[in-house]
Amino acid sequence: MSATDPALTPAQPDTRPDYIAQAIAALTAAARTTRTIGAGTDNEHTEPADFGEIACHVITSVAANLGGVDTLLAGRPGSWEADYVRQIVHSTTPEDELLTWRTEPVRMHLDIEGVFYDFGLEQLWDEESGQAIKHEQDDSLTEEQVARADAIAASIDRLWKQDQAAYREAYLASIRHELTRRGLTVEVEAIDEPADTLTWEPFADELHELARKNTPLPMTGEAPDWTEGTPADALRRAGLTYTARAQDAI
After folding, report:
1. Which UniProt keywords apply (predicted)?
2. Is the same domain home to 175 and 89?
């Protein structure tokens, strides 16, 4: 064997967190706490913590953080252990109120360029930006016309970036509105990482589809119009192309 043979290479230690050990430690600490009964009365006294309540609370919140009890138990949904966990969650809270037990922020994967591509907006911007650049290079233009062409081209690119930033804020506001409507007060985070790096969560997927449907576009202040073609087609009909908006802005 050579000195570089894998069989001679010492095994690397597993540095991944031991979440089960951490959970056991946290629950053990919680079980050792006490609670005060009858505070301020002659019968005031302390008792051990109600660990049954603590355990039910923890399990229910974990289910809520994952978006539902089915997601929590997806690893082996038909086991007897899963059946008991399902009973705990369903006994702790009605199913339609489960998400009120959530403690984690709702993390949304937001690929704005991907959304704008689906809406036809990226194609609209790319086409008009290319035309503006080509117009800048027209040798027949006067100095004044060149300056205006430069300003229009720059404005088109500026509007593209502004639209993405504005849509991001409106998208998050749309999700917050939906969460508030459901009685949830958790935070919302937009994650720019690739979607395949995030844990899939049916609840987040549902919110994303609602936001795509209802989030107002910055060009119109209204939800995307799919009546006749793409939202970009609706903008063309309304005279709200990037070129038209850029011309109005200078």
Report:
1. Plasmid
2. no
> For residues 185 and 47, which has the higher predicted lDDT (pLDDT)?
47
Rounded Cα distance between 57 and 51, Å, is 10
Question: Residue 159: in which H helix or E strand, if any?
Answer: helix 143-181
Contact indicator for 124, 236 with CB cutoff of 8 Å:
yes
Same domain assignment for residues 161 and 223: yes
Domain-embedded: residue 170: yes
pTM above 0.85, yes or no: no
Contacts of 51 (CB under 8 A, 6+ apart): 30, 31
34-37 and 188-191: which strand pairing?
unpaired
Query: What are the angstrom distances between the C-alpha of 131 and each of 15, 233, 238?
Result: 54, 18, 20
Are both 128 and 245 inside the same structural domain?
yes
- Alpha carbon distance 135, 240 (integer Å): 20
CB proximity list for 236: less than 8 A, separation 6 or greater: 124
| 156/247 Cα distance (integer angstroms) | 9
The last residue of a domain, from among 101, 119, 152: 101
Give the list of residues 6+ apart from residue 153 with CB closer than 8 angstroms, or none: 129, 132, 133, 135, 136, 246
Which of 101, 128, 145 is the endpoint of a domain? 101
Q: With contact defined as beta carbons under 8 Å apart, do 88 and 61 qualify?
A: no
* Inter-CA distances, 58 with 27, 55, 234, 245, Å: 9, 5, 49, 53
Structure confidence by residue, pLDDT tens digits, 43-72:
889 999 999 999 999 999 999 999 899 999
